[in-house]
Amino acid sequence: MRIDIITCVPDLLHSFFSHSILKRAQQAGHAEIVVHDLRQYSTNKHRTIDDYAFGGGAGMVMQVEPIARCIRDLQSRHEYDEVIYLTPDGERLNQGIVNQLSLKGNLIMLCGHYKGVDQRVRDLFVTRELSIGDYVLSGGELGAAVLVDSIVRLIPGVLNDETSALTDSFQDNLLAPPVYSRPADFEGSKVPDILLSGHEAKIEDWRYEQALIRTRTRRPDLLD
Ligand code: ADE
User: What's the pTM?
Assistant: First the structure.
């Protein structure tokens, strides 16, 4: 999978994508993540990419031309399944959407800033609009980082233990059960006996029950 991210603050994303699981995923050839500086697609000498809003009002608008140039340039070289715009008024991201996107081919992600992008970008180029939550960030970059991270870890082979993605919270609309490691007794606080019993089936039952309890108390909306 190839993911191209269009932003006017590329430095913000470069370091994020060169660490940990995302770094390994790229080195192993599972994902190629390329960050594009939108200012490179501006044709004026100050490399500006925003302008005042027609009709007045506070805040600048990201112009259609540099964005169109950048997206067309990418589309002339690669096939893309989606052009995703990160915006607080998009569809709210959840694990189901992440699962769907992880099965796609290449993706373009566009990060908004200021008052957002000219509506014609959304009408003509964007195929999907996503928000990472009901709060407003200063730009779409953190949204793109969240989206890339959540997608790439689902690509087969990226996680060492492939089953670990399947037992994540949300994968079956349940939060994950509690987990424990050594020591079995920490200052009198003990690991539940069942986990030390060696009874695989009983342990599975216990985990399922704990996941249900957690979900019922913390996120009952997931069970509706
Ligand atoms: N840009 C600004 N706020 C955002 C949000 N909540 N989700 C995605 N992109 C954003």
Answer: 0.92
